[in-house]
Design a protein that fits this description.
The protein has 188 residues and is mainly beta. It has strands at 2-5, 8-10, 22-25, 28-30, 43-45, 48-50, 63-65, 67-70, 89-92, 110-112, 130-132. The chain starts with a strand and ends in a 56-residue tail after the last strand.
């Protein structure tokens, strides 16, 4: 098991070489390809992933502690299987379609300019999270805690306020129509 501290990994194709298991502290991954790679049982502490492809990466028991993803492709990543202890993530300009956050406590997470189509937030705690200019088309919210979240500038969401906790959540007037979808009403 390796221990890497403050190391920069740049332009590495981990789909063709083995990703070493270990603890990565304050490391930066730039323009790396992890797609379909198994990064299970690793620990990332205060790391940054910039312009990386992590689509369909396997994250069983992987720890993400204060990890930032910027400009990354994370399609289909099942974060539900990651290590929930001290889980802390933020996403900026990321493609997260089909990702899964089922039952995770990711309160206070920042999603900025992200594509979150068909992301599964079922039973997740995303309270006090910020969804800044995010596309939430067909994202799944079912018994999700959105209390105090900011969805003001996001769009295409549809969620049933009777099945989710939305107290003090911030929605735009236009976006609030997504709260009525389940009621099959016509608003003119």
């Amino acid at each position: 098991m390796v221990v890497e501290v403050e190391k920069v990994f740049e332009n590495i194709d981990f789909t063709s070489i083995h990703f070493p298991k270990g603890e990565y502290d304050l490391c930066v991954f730039k323009n790396c390809d992890f797609s379909k790679t198994n990064i299970s049982n690793n620990e990332f502490i205060e790391c940054q992933f910039i312009n990386c492809n992590l689509s369909n990466v396997q994250v069983l028991n992987t720890a993400f502690k204060d990890v930032v993803f910027e400009g990354c492709k994370l399609m289909g990543v099942n974060f539900e299987k990651s290590n929930p202890f001290l889980l802390n993530l933020s996403f900026k300009k990321c493609q997260l379609s089909f990702a899964v956050f089922f039952k995770l406590d990711i309160s206070g997470t920042q999603f900025q300019n992200c594509d979150l189509q068909e992301v599964d937030f079922t039973e997740a705690n995303i309270s006090k999270s910020v969804f800044d200019n995010c596309n939430l088309l067909k994202a799944v919210f079912k018994t999700t805690n959105l209390e105090g979240s900011d969805m003001y500038s996001s769009y295409n969401y549809s969620l049933d306020p009777t099945l989710n906790k939305i107290k003090k959540a911030h929605f735009s007037k236009e976006g609030a129509l997504g709260l009525l979808t389940e009621f099959d009403v016509i608003v003119s």
